[in-house]
Specification:
The protein contains ten helices and ten strands. The chain is of the alpha/beta class and about 260 residues long. The chain has two domains: about 170 residues, 3-Layer(aba) Sandwich (Rossmann fold); about 80 residues, no CATH class. Helix 3 crosses helix 5 and helix 3 packs parallel to helix 6. Bound molecules: adenosine-5'-triphosphate. The site of adenosine-5'-triphosphate (ATP) has 11 residues, from strand 2 and helix 1. Adenosine-5'-triphosphate binds next to strand 2 and helix 1. InterPro entries: AAA+_ATPase (IPR003593), ABC_AA/LPS_Transport (IPR051120), ABC_transporter-like_ATP-bd (IPR003439), BCA_ABC_TP_C (IPR032823), P-loop_NTPase (IPR027417).
Length: about 260
């Protein structure tokens, strides 16, 4: 059996009277594609916020490659090798595609973005490494030929891929994708499926939240299902599609 990269152990978070994530256990194996699905408000994005250190859990713990991360700050978690994208596009529209990727890395380098403007020799070497890593990430998402274009001039599907490139440039071992296919047309979704597989083939682990069932069923090795903060099912796409609790949670909607 392969190595566990991420483990959630009885993770709970309460916001006032609301238990948004309720005693969730999960183990994700390295190199796999895991999806997290569930109705609106089930707690999916909150789980990503817990993993990336935006919120500390009210109870339980999260570990990454065997080390406890649930009391670390977001930047420390990024440095350990977890990157993410967000549900809504968060690009700098009037910056180039390349700069949008580079800025993601400047947040974690010693000099930072301002330091790169006041250039010293070590800063220049760091800048070169950042540019190289950024171009490599753009290449993986097949956007290297658009490096000098403004982000706002990219079609929607490419803007979403650019966000993934930005996350990849931080050299993560695990990447969390929050609704990566949202708003994409069928062609853009097919391209994205192929690219996520390519990322997986480089040895990365992918954990994604997604509402598009066809996309999820097509791509995932395993799926976990949340409803009202609780994990109600986990299994292969075939197992999830015939799980009575999942069908009930999605009542009126088809689990493709
Ligand atoms: N910071 C917060 N303060 C208070 N309540 C919150 C906070 N963050 C999330 N919640 C609540 O926690 C619950 C879970 O929200 P979450 O955004 O994780 O759901 P989701 O499954 O990602 O939904 P969707 O599919 O609509 O994005 C919701 O009831 C939400 O209102």
């Amino acid at each position: 059996m392969s190595k566990v990269i991420l483990e959630l152990n009885s993770v709970t978070i309460r916001f006032g009277g609301l238990t948004a994530v309720d005693n969730v256990n999960m183990k994700i194996e390295q190199g796999t594609i895991r999806a997290l699905i569930g109705p609106n408000g089930a707690g999916k994005s909150t789980i990503f916020n817990l993993i990336t250190g935006i919120y500390p859990p009210s109870a339980g713990e999260i570990s990454f490659l065997g080390a406890r991360i649930s009391d670390l700050k977001p930047h420390a978690i990024t440095e350990m090798g977890i990157a993410r994208t967000f549900q809504n596009i968060r690009l700098f529209d009037e910056m180039t595609v390349l700069d949008n990727v580079k800025i993601g890395q400047h947040c974690r380098t010693k000099t930072g973005f301002l330091g790169s403007i006041i250039r010293g020799p070590s800063v220049k070497a760091e800048e070169k490494a950042i540019t190289e890593a950024s171009m490599e990430a753009l290449k993986l998402m097949e956007l290297e030929h658009k490096a000098d274009e403004l982000a706002m001039n990219l079609p929607y599907g490419e803007q979403r891929r650019l966000e993934i490139a930005r996350a990849l440039a931080t050299n993560p071992k695990l990447i969390l994708l929050d609704e990566p296919a949202a708003g994409m047309n069928p062609q853009e979704k097919m391209t994205l499926v192929a690219m996520i597989r390519k990322i997986q083939s480089r040895g990365l682990t992918i954990f994604l939240v997604e509402h598009d069932m066809k996309f999820v069923m097509n791509l995932s090795d395993r799926i976990a299902v949340l409803d009202y903060g609780r994990k109600i099912a986990a299994g292969s796409p075939a197992e999830i599609q015939r799980d009575p609790a999942v069908i009930a949670a999605y009542l009126g909607k088809e689990v493709v």
